[in-house]
Amino acid sequence: MKNKDKKPKSSIDNFESPDFYNLDELLTQEHIMIRNSIRDFVKKEISPFIEDWSEKNYFPSEIVGKMGEIGIFGPTTSEKYGGGGLDYISYGIIMQEIERGDSGMRSTASVQSSLVMFPIEEYGSEEQKNKFLPKLASGKILGCFGLTEPDHGSNPSGMKTKCEDKGDYYLLNGSKMWISNSPEADIAIVWAKDENERIKGLIVERGMSGFSTPKTKGKWSLRASITGELVFDNVKVPKSNVLPKKDGLGAPLGCLDKARYGISWGAIGVAMDCYEASKRYSLERKQFNKPIGSFQLVQKKLAEMLTEITKAQLLSWKLGKLMDEGKATTAQISMAKRNNVEIASNIIREARQIHGGMGITNEYPMMRHMMNLESVLTYEGTHEIHLLILGNEITGIPSFE
Ligand code: TGC
Ligand code: FAD
């Protein structure tokens, strides 16, 4: 094989997940089946290509239909609307497996499921559910979620995007920034303020006059995910496209709860991928005539990685149970998202170190995961904001302002 055709080692995917505390005993047969099927999907449809897509900054739009076919979109959405009708542990497992493949691929999935299908199912009319959910579930259409604005990221309540009541339609003006999927999306869930400063959710459809979605260029992170803006220049959104059942900031924040929960599992996937790669490498790579895994300093890294992964698994599993019981609080979700993204980021760095110079190449997944997690640390609420949500819960004193 010519050198240019040689696939990176990371395209050969032998991943098996660590389960140090026999946590599989907490899962049902159905959960394990779902995990196996998504893991196989990632091995076949993502791992062989992901380094190339990331290097080329290419979003493989054909993955959307494939994800839909296998049931990645809307796992918790009712079967009546084409969803999976599954529990939140299943949703978490799906996120873990996809993010193990790549955080950008998980972004596509969590936006579609938690930030587009969830608000339509939870806050939408019957007509909206029937019109959009089956197509979103099957991946026939792609959605995005517009909350962040150029001047309002951590503080979405200050948003400037406006929707004015004009009788049978709302006139939408403003812009959103940093929107995952936007340049390829068929619909956007957009959060805008009406004349009374009340935040409303609108379903904006591609093709509506005055609506455009310029692509964000120059990203060094999530390079296989596509990001863009949403620009609204006197867009007439029919009233039938307004989400009727909930308004106020609590509506978008309710969606974020679901997506943040999914990220807590996704980050474990990344951590597992780096741990498994490091374990293998430490047994294969020899220095001073011994496998590097025989040195105490390398064993310390591996032992600490496994400990943090196991703690994170327990956190997300219990949170999933609370989600299923409808008892999970925003602060509990913040703790899991924040902790698991942090431990995954630390594990990636240790894994990169174990691989020495090879760790900076695309033969191994660490650098891609490392760059990706810089976005995951920031989006869906920054690391600092989640700490402050916890501080507010503990003291009863919000310190955001
Ligand atoms: P605050 O005064 O605390 O609350 C305003 C209203 O919202 C209610 N509420 C919630 N309702 C449902 N679920 C939740 N989790 C809720 N949290 C709060 C609250 O009761 C209140 O209701 P009401 O009726 O009294 O009005 O709001 P605040 O303005 O002080 O903000 C608090 C803060 C800073 C925590 C919040 O703004 C925040 O979370 N900021 C972070 C922004 C963020 O996470 N943006 C994410 C954008 S989307 C994204 O990043 C997608 S990336 C996807 C991918 O590619 O994977
Ligand atoms: P800022 O809010 O300006 O924060 C800058 C820094 O200040 C951060 O470190 C922050 O923690 C800190 N800070 C801010 N306020 C406080 C405070 N009160 N106390 C202490 N520290 C504070 N948004 C969407 O709506 N939809 C999407 O699909 C989406 N996808 C994204 C994809 C990518 C790749 C990225 C990078 C972002 C995406 N976002 C999306 C936006 C994301 O949610 C925001 O970037 C995030 O909420 C932070 O906002 P900001 O970037 O404006 O940072």
Question: Any descriptors?
Answer:
single chain; 401 residues; alpha+beta; Butyryl-Coa Dehydrogenase, subunit A, domain 1; Butyryl-CoA Dehydrogenase, subunit A, domain 2; Butyryl-CoA Dehydrogenase, subunit A, domain 3; 3 domains; 4-stranded antiparallel β-sheet; 3-stranded mixed β-sheet; globular; binds 3-thiaglutaryl-CoA; binds flavin-adenine dinucleotide
Write structural notes for this entry.
The protein is α+β, with helices and mostly antiparallel strands and 401 residues long. It folds into three domains: 13-138, Butyryl-Coa Dehydrogenase, subunit A, domain 1, CATH 1.10.540.10; 143-241, Butyryl-CoA Dehydrogenase, subunit A, domain 2 (Beta Barrel); 250-395, Butyryl-CoA Dehydrogenase, subunit A, domain 3. It is built from eleven helices and nine strands. It has helices spanning 29-46, 50-56, 62-70, 88-101, 103-123, 126-137, 250-284, 296-324, 330-354, 366-378, 383-395, and strands spanning 143-146, 162-165, 169-180, 187-193, 199-205, 211-212, 227-238, 286-287, 290-291. It has a four-stranded antiparallel β-sheet, covered by helices on one side. A hairpin with a 5-residue loop joins β4 and β5 (199-205). α7 runs antiparallel to α8 (296-324). The termini are far apart. The mean pLDDT is 96. Bound molecules: 3-thiaglutaryl-CoA (TGC) and flavin-adenine dinucleotide (FAD).
Brief account:
The protein is of the alpha+beta class and 401 residues long. The chain has 11 helices and 9 strands.
